[in-house]
Amino acid sequence: MIQLSNITCKAGNKILLQNINARFEPGKLHLVIGPNGAGKSTLLKIAGGQISPHAGTVLYETKRLETMSYQALARVRAALSQHMELSFPLKVWEVVMMGRYPHIHGNHVRKDIRYCHEAMQLFDLEELSERDYMSLSGGEKQRVHFARIMAQIWEPVPGSCRYLLLDEPLTFLDVHYQFQFMQLLKTLLQQQDLVIIGVVHDLNIAAKFADNILLLHHGKLVCSGTREAVLTSAHIREVYRLEPVIYETSDRYFLFF
Ligand SMILES: Nc1ncnc2c1ncn2[C@@H]1O[C@H](COP(=O)(O)OP(=O)(O)OP(=O)(O)O)[C@@H](O)[C@H]1O
Fold first, then answer.
1. Does the beta carbon of 11 lie inside 6 Å of ligand 1?
2. Which residues are bridge partners to 3 per DSSP?
3. Distance 222 CA to ligand 1 centre (A)
4. N or C end of the chain: which has fewer CB within 10 A?
5. Is 36 in the pocket of ligand 1 (CB under 6 A)?
6. Residue 90 is part of which domain span?
7. Average pLDDT for the chain
8. Which numbered atom of ligand 1 lies nearest the CA of 16?
9. CATH code of residue 45
10. How many angstroms is it from 37 CA to the middle of ligand 1?
11. In this predicted model, what pLDDT tens digit does every residue of 138-188 receive, in sequence order?
Protein backbone atom coordinates (compact mmCIF):
# COMPACT_ATOMS: atom_id res chain seq x y z
CA MET A 1 0.00 0.00 0.00
CA ILE A 2 1.13 3.55 -0.70
CA GLN A 3 -0.50 6.24 1.37
CA LEU A 4 -0.27 9.95 0.64
CA SER A 5 -1.29 12.22 3.50
CA ASN A 6 -1.79 15.98 3.19
CA ILE A 7 0.61 16.25 0.25
CA THR A 8 1.39 19.76 -0.95
CA CYS A 9 3.97 20.53 -3.62
CA LYS A 10 5.11 23.90 -4.95
CA ALA A 11 7.44 25.30 -7.61
CA GLY A 12 8.31 28.83 -6.53
CA ASN A 13 4.97 30.46 -5.76
CA LYS A 14 3.00 28.05 -7.91
CA ILE A 15 1.11 25.32 -6.07
CA LEU A 16 1.33 22.09 -8.07
CA LEU A 17 -0.53 19.89 -5.59
CA GLN A 18 -2.63 20.96 -2.66
CA ASN A 19 -3.42 18.83 0.35
CA ILE A 20 -3.78 15.50 -1.42
CA ASN A 21 -4.88 12.46 0.52
CA ALA A 22 -4.96 9.10 -1.25
CA ARG A 23 -4.49 5.45 -0.50
CA PHE A 24 -3.29 2.96 -3.11
CA GLU A 25 -3.96 -0.60 -2.08
CA PRO A 26 -2.41 -3.69 -3.67
CA GLY A 27 -4.45 -5.85 -6.03
CA LYS A 28 -6.33 -2.88 -7.52
CA LEU A 29 -5.69 -0.80 -10.61
CA HIS A 30 -5.53 2.87 -9.61
CA LEU A 31 -5.73 5.28 -12.56
CA VAL A 32 -5.17 9.03 -12.24
CA ILE A 33 -6.95 11.27 -14.74
CA GLY A 34 -7.30 15.02 -15.21
CA PRO A 35 -6.63 17.68 -17.82
CA ASN A 36 -3.17 18.84 -18.91
CA GLY A 37 -1.32 20.53 -16.08
CA ALA A 38 -3.62 19.09 -13.39
CA GLY A 39 -0.69 17.67 -11.40
CA LYS A 40 -0.88 13.98 -12.36
CA SER A 41 2.83 13.47 -13.14
CA THR A 42 3.78 15.46 -10.04
CA LEU A 43 1.59 13.19 -7.93
CA LEU A 44 3.18 10.10 -9.45
CA LYS A 45 6.71 11.44 -8.94
CA ILE A 46 5.96 12.15 -5.30
CA ALA A 47 4.46 8.69 -4.81
CA GLY A 48 7.59 7.22 -6.43
CA GLY A 49 10.08 9.28 -4.42
CA GLN A 50 11.43 11.09 -7.51
CA ILE A 51 10.53 14.43 -5.96
CA SER A 52 9.83 15.38 -2.38
CA PRO A 53 6.66 17.18 -1.32
CA HIS A 54 6.83 20.49 0.57
CA ALA A 55 4.38 19.15 3.11
CA GLY A 56 2.79 15.84 3.91
CA THR A 57 3.94 12.24 4.12
CA VAL A 58 4.30 9.29 1.78
CA LEU A 59 4.08 5.88 3.39
CA TYR A 60 5.09 2.58 1.81
CA GLU A 61 3.19 0.26 4.11
CA THR A 62 4.33 1.59 7.50
CA LYS A 63 7.65 3.08 6.29
CA ARG A 64 8.07 6.75 5.53
CA LEU A 65 9.44 7.03 2.01
CA GLU A 66 12.25 9.42 2.95
CA THR A 67 13.70 6.85 5.37
CA MET A 68 14.23 4.30 2.58
CA SER A 69 17.60 4.24 0.80
CA TYR A 70 17.61 4.80 -2.95
CA GLN A 71 18.66 1.19 -3.51
CA ALA A 72 16.07 -0.30 -1.16
CA LEU A 73 13.41 1.74 -2.95
CA ALA A 74 14.64 0.75 -6.42
CA ARG A 75 14.35 -2.93 -5.51
CA VAL A 76 10.63 -2.66 -4.82
CA ARG A 77 9.46 0.34 -6.88
CA ALA A 78 9.68 0.67 -10.66
CA ALA A 79 8.56 3.79 -12.51
CA LEU A 80 7.83 4.47 -16.16
CA SER A 81 8.38 8.14 -16.92
CA GLN A 82 6.60 10.13 -19.59
CA HIS A 83 9.77 11.01 -21.48
CA MET A 84 12.16 8.10 -21.37
CA GLU A 85 14.65 8.30 -24.20
CA LEU A 86 18.00 6.64 -24.62
CA SER A 87 20.37 8.04 -27.20
CA PHE A 88 23.23 5.55 -27.14
CA PRO A 89 23.40 2.20 -28.94
CA LEU A 90 22.18 -0.70 -26.82
CA LYS A 91 20.54 -3.97 -27.71
CA VAL A 92 16.98 -4.49 -26.57
CA TRP A 93 17.98 -7.12 -23.98
CA GLU A 94 20.61 -4.73 -22.57
CA VAL A 95 17.96 -2.04 -22.00
CA VAL A 96 15.76 -4.61 -20.23
CA MET A 97 18.76 -5.70 -18.15
CA MET A 98 19.09 -2.10 -16.91
CA GLY A 99 15.99 -2.87 -14.83
CA ARG A 100 18.02 -5.41 -12.88
CA TYR A 101 20.77 -2.93 -11.84
CA PRO A 102 19.40 -2.33 -8.32
CA HIS A 103 19.77 -6.08 -7.70
CA ILE A 104 23.13 -6.67 -9.36
CA HIS A 105 26.44 -6.75 -7.49
CA GLY A 106 29.18 -6.85 -10.12
CA ASN A 107 27.94 -8.82 -13.11
CA HIS A 108 24.42 -10.03 -13.78
CA VAL A 109 23.86 -13.69 -12.95
CA ARG A 110 21.72 -16.43 -14.45
CA LYS A 111 18.68 -15.36 -12.43
CA ASP A 112 18.84 -11.82 -13.89
CA ILE A 113 19.00 -13.24 -17.43
CA ARG A 114 15.99 -15.45 -16.75
CA TYR A 115 13.91 -12.59 -15.33
CA CYS A 116 14.74 -10.38 -18.32
CA HIS A 117 13.85 -13.18 -20.69
CA GLU A 118 10.50 -13.73 -18.96
CA ALA A 119 9.77 -10.00 -18.91
CA MET A 120 10.53 -9.78 -22.65
CA GLN A 121 8.22 -12.72 -23.32
CA LEU A 122 5.45 -10.90 -21.51
CA PHE A 123 5.68 -8.02 -23.98
CA ASP A 124 6.28 -9.99 -27.21
CA LEU A 125 9.90 -8.88 -27.42
CA GLU A 126 11.80 -12.13 -27.89
CA GLU A 127 12.29 -11.57 -31.63
CA LEU A 128 13.57 -8.06 -31.02
CA SER A 129 16.00 -9.08 -28.27
CA GLU A 130 19.19 -8.53 -30.34
CA ARG A 131 17.92 -5.44 -32.18
CA ASP A 132 19.48 -2.01 -31.65
CA TYR A 133 17.05 -0.20 -29.33
CA MET A 134 17.41 3.03 -31.31
CA SER A 135 16.14 1.36 -34.48
CA LEU A 136 12.77 0.47 -32.90
CA SER A 137 9.44 2.20 -33.46
CA GLY A 138 7.90 4.30 -30.68
CA GLY A 139 5.50 1.50 -29.65
CA GLU A 140 8.26 -1.11 -29.67
CA LYS A 141 10.47 1.12 -27.49
CA GLN A 142 7.57 1.56 -25.07
CA ARG A 143 7.23 -2.23 -24.76
CA VAL A 144 10.97 -2.51 -24.08
CA HIS A 145 10.56 -0.09 -21.18
CA PHE A 146 7.61 -2.10 -19.85
CA ALA A 147 9.85 -5.16 -19.86
CA ARG A 148 12.65 -3.17 -18.18
CA ILE A 149 10.49 -1.98 -15.29
CA MET A 150 8.86 -5.40 -14.87
CA ALA A 151 12.32 -7.03 -14.77
CA GLN A 152 13.17 -4.55 -11.99
CA ILE A 153 10.41 -5.86 -9.72
CA TRP A 154 10.04 -9.36 -11.14
CA GLU A 155 10.63 -11.21 -7.91
CA PRO A 156 8.26 -10.97 -4.94
CA VAL A 157 10.00 -9.28 -2.01
CA PRO A 158 9.50 -10.94 1.40
CA GLY A 159 7.70 -8.60 3.76
CA SER A 160 7.01 -5.93 1.15
CA CYS A 161 4.67 -5.06 -1.68
CA ARG A 162 6.08 -4.23 -5.12
CA TYR A 163 5.08 -0.90 -6.63
CA LEU A 164 4.61 -0.02 -10.29
CA LEU A 165 4.13 3.64 -11.25
CA LEU A 166 3.20 4.32 -14.86
CA ASP A 167 3.06 7.82 -16.31
CA GLU A 168 1.03 7.72 -19.53
CA PRO A 169 2.03 4.15 -20.42
CA LEU A 170 -0.29 3.99 -23.43
CA THR A 171 1.44 6.74 -25.41
CA PHE A 172 2.79 5.29 -28.68
CA LEU A 173 0.76 2.08 -28.42
CA ASP A 174 -1.78 1.08 -31.03
CA VAL A 175 -5.22 0.10 -29.82
CA HIS A 176 -4.31 -3.63 -29.76
CA TYR A 177 -1.31 -3.11 -27.51
CA GLN A 178 -3.20 -0.57 -25.37
CA PHE A 179 -5.83 -3.16 -24.55
CA GLN A 180 -3.29 -5.96 -24.23
CA PHE A 181 -1.25 -3.87 -21.80
CA MET A 182 -4.24 -2.93 -19.65
CA GLN A 183 -5.41 -6.57 -19.59
CA LEU A 184 -1.92 -7.60 -18.60
CA LEU A 185 -1.93 -5.18 -15.66
CA LYS A 186 -5.20 -6.72 -14.49
CA THR A 187 -3.63 -10.19 -14.73
CA LEU A 188 -0.50 -9.06 -12.88
CA LEU A 189 -2.69 -7.65 -10.13
CA GLN A 190 -3.76 -11.17 -9.29
CA GLN A 191 -0.37 -11.31 -7.57
CA GLN A 192 -1.71 -9.70 -4.46
CA ASP A 193 1.53 -7.91 -3.53
CA LEU A 194 1.45 -5.51 -6.49
CA VAL A 195 0.44 -1.87 -6.19
CA ILE A 196 -0.14 -0.25 -9.58
CA ILE A 197 -0.78 3.45 -10.15
CA GLY A 198 -1.07 4.79 -13.69
CA VAL A 199 -1.80 8.09 -15.38
CA VAL A 200 -4.03 7.92 -18.44
CA HIS A 201 -5.83 10.49 -20.59
CA ASP A 202 -8.40 8.19 -22.17
CA LEU A 203 -11.48 8.31 -19.94
CA ASN A 204 -12.96 5.21 -21.58
CA ILE A 205 -9.80 3.25 -20.81
CA ALA A 206 -10.13 4.39 -17.19
CA ALA A 207 -13.82 3.42 -17.19
CA LYS A 208 -13.08 -0.03 -18.58
CA PHE A 209 -10.04 -1.03 -16.54
CA ALA A 210 -9.68 1.00 -13.33
CA ASP A 211 -10.76 -0.29 -9.95
CA ASN A 212 -10.16 3.16 -8.50
CA ILE A 213 -10.07 6.45 -10.43
CA LEU A 214 -8.57 9.68 -9.07
CA LEU A 215 -9.62 12.89 -10.77
CA LEU A 216 -7.20 15.80 -10.41
CA HIS A 217 -7.82 19.41 -11.39
CA HIS A 218 -5.65 22.47 -10.68
CA GLY A 219 -3.54 20.43 -8.23
CA LYS A 220 -6.52 19.30 -6.18
CA LEU A 221 -8.14 15.90 -5.90
CA VAL A 222 -11.69 16.49 -7.11
CA CYS A 223 -12.79 12.98 -6.17
CA SER A 224 -11.79 9.33 -6.25
CA GLY A 225 -13.60 6.02 -6.42
CA THR A 226 -15.49 3.93 -8.94
CA ARG A 227 -16.17 5.01 -12.53
CA GLU A 228 -19.81 5.65 -11.65
CA ALA A 229 -18.74 7.99 -8.84
CA VAL A 230 -15.98 9.82 -10.71
CA LEU A 231 -16.89 9.86 -14.40
CA THR A 232 -20.13 11.77 -14.00
CA SER A 233 -21.41 14.45 -16.38
CA ALA A 234 -20.98 17.07 -13.67
CA HIS A 235 -17.30 16.20 -13.05
CA ILE A 236 -16.47 16.00 -16.77
CA ARG A 237 -18.16 19.35 -17.37
CA GLU A 238 -16.36 20.99 -14.45
CA VAL A 239 -12.90 19.65 -15.24
CA TYR A 240 -12.75 19.16 -19.02
CA ARG A 241 -15.38 21.75 -20.05
CA LEU A 242 -17.10 19.14 -22.23
CA GLU A 243 -20.60 17.72 -22.16
CA PRO A 244 -20.41 13.92 -22.35
CA VAL A 245 -23.13 11.46 -23.23
CA ILE A 246 -22.81 8.54 -20.85
CA TYR A 247 -23.91 5.08 -21.95
CA GLU A 248 -24.22 2.70 -19.05
CA THR A 249 -25.30 -0.94 -18.82
CA SER A 250 -24.75 -3.51 -16.08
CA ASP A 251 -21.19 -4.22 -17.30
CA ARG A 252 -20.28 -1.33 -19.58
CA TYR A 253 -19.66 2.36 -19.12
CA PHE A 254 -18.83 4.61 -22.08
CA LEU A 255 -18.46 8.32 -22.53
CA PHE A 256 -19.13 9.92 -25.93
CA PHE A 257 -18.22 13.50 -26.79
N1 LIG B 1 9.48 22.57 -11.81
C2 LIG B 1 8.37 23.23 -12.15
N3 LIG B 1 8.34 24.57 -12.16
C4 LIG B 1 7.21 25.24 -12.48
N5 LIG B 1 6.06 24.64 -12.80
C6 LIG B 1 6.03 23.31 -12.82
C7 LIG B 1 7.17 22.52 -12.50
N8 LIG B 1 6.84 21.22 -12.58
C9 LIG B 1 5.56 21.20 -12.96
N10 LIG B 1 5.07 22.43 -13.11
C11 LIG B 1 3.71 22.81 -13.49
O12 LIG B 1 2.82 22.12 -12.63
C13 LIG B 1 1.64 21.79 -13.32
C14 LIG B 1 1.39 20.29 -13.16
O15 LIG B 1 2.36 19.59 -13.91
P16 LIG B 1 2.22 18.03 -14.16
O17 LIG B 1 3.31 17.64 -15.09
O18 LIG B 1 2.14 17.33 -12.87
O19 LIG B 1 0.82 17.97 -14.90
P20 LIG B 1 0.06 16.76 -15.61
O21 LIG B 1 -1.29 16.68 -15.02
O22 LIG B 1 0.90 15.54 -15.57
O23 LIG B 1 -0.05 17.33 -17.10
P24 LIG B 1 -0.04 16.63 -18.55
O25 LIG B 1 -1.36 15.92 -18.70
O26 LIG B 1 0.05 17.81 -19.47
O27 LIG B 1 1.14 15.72 -18.63
C28 LIG B 1 1.84 22.24 -14.75
O29 LIG B 1 1.20 23.49 -14.92
C30 LIG B 1 3.33 22.39 -14.89
O31 LIG B 1 3.70 23.38 -15.83
1. yes
2. 23, 59
3. 17
4. C
5. yes
6. 2-256
7. 95
8. 12
9. 3.40.50.300
10. 5
11. 999 999 999 999 999 999 999 899 999 999 999 989 999 999 999 999 999
